[in-house]
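On to our target:
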Amino acid sequence: MAWSRYSADVAPAATIPSTTTSRRQPDERQLPFADAVCLVLVVQGLTHGWAIGSVLAPDGELGRIWSLSRPLTYRAIDGLVERGLVTRRGHVAGRGRDRVIVGATPAGRRYARRWLDAPVEHLRDVRTELLVKLWLRERAGLDRASLLDAQQRLFQPAIAALGASRPDDDLVDIWRRESAGAVRRFLDQALDAVPSAVDQPDPTIPRTEWTVKLSARNQLRATVDAVNHGEVMSTVRVALPDGQRITAAITKDAADDLGVAPGDDVIVIIKSTEVILAKES
């Protein structure tokens, strides 16, 4: 008897495919985003489509970040079953109709673990995919710092390239630069909020707090206005609180090490013969 691919929760017991007769190899190729999220929720213990759909509803636990309609949730579960990443294992009585119980296969568990550990590929994916992965890791009690650190390292070259401003920048260039800066600041703050275990001090070693002090007296707080990179040198233009602007010429390596970008708060240190740039971290 055929039944709708949207009815994973309500199919009669007689229509549940047997999990003992299938010999098809699981398909572990890249999943659509919705399917991957549903798979992780199954691995985390949600055993039927209604429960998964409740988490993914606009007013559900995950709804503030991303939501999925119930029909599309059931479609994702069907797709996972077809790939051999999830199996239907029976049914339980629900409100009004029976609900089909699902569980992850070993291949499904492997895929979910790899997917949760993988940083996103594009800056535009931070708003949805990365936030969802971080939420799912927190839900499972997994460390978030490892993913944030991997994401920061992956994006560093792109953010550095997009952070430089040019005289001929158009609105798209400005948007991309500001978006890259926002992502960099988000990753920095997220890592500060969730320190990695490897960054924790060794309790057997006495801890020393460092506060940097410089002998130079001309220290001015400012905000980076523009960064221009050359092959060897970079120029950093900053705006003082009263609107005056100062330009510092520093090596490109120094600019990269500082991760300086428009919008950053910095300290301009001026000596009689040169201007030095410092950034609090």
